[in-house]
Amino acid sequence: MPHKLLLADDSVTIQRVIELTFADEDISVIAVGDGRKAIERVQSDRPDIV
């Protein structure tokens, strides 16, 4: 089972760079654009890394 990384950043470019960085790793990136969405996703997705 892949680890889940939650990334909260309003820059779509940064989100994409991080997604590409971890594409070949056993890490699934969940990218959101703000802190409120990050809190929601922490509660629903239970990421391993924030």
Can you walk me through this structure?
- With 50 residues, the protein is of the alpha+beta class.
- Helix content is 42%, strand content 24%.
- The protein is built from two helices and two strands, in the order βαβα.
- The chain has helices at residues 12-21, 35-45; strands spanning 3-8, 27-32.
- Strands 1-2 form a two-stranded parallel ribbon.
Helix and strand arrangement:
Blueprint: E1 3-8, H1 12-21, E2 27-32, H2 35-45
Parallel strand pairs: 1-2
* Multimeric organization: single chain
| Terminal residue distance | 17 Å
**Beta-strand percentage range:** 15-25%
How would you state the average pLDDT, rounded? 96
Largest sheet: 2 strands, parallel
Structural class estimated from helices and strands: alpha+beta
Low-confidence stretches: none
Compact description:
With 50 residues, the protein is of the alpha+beta class.
Key descriptive features of the protein:
single chain; 50 residues; alpha+beta; 2 strands; 42% helix; 24% strand
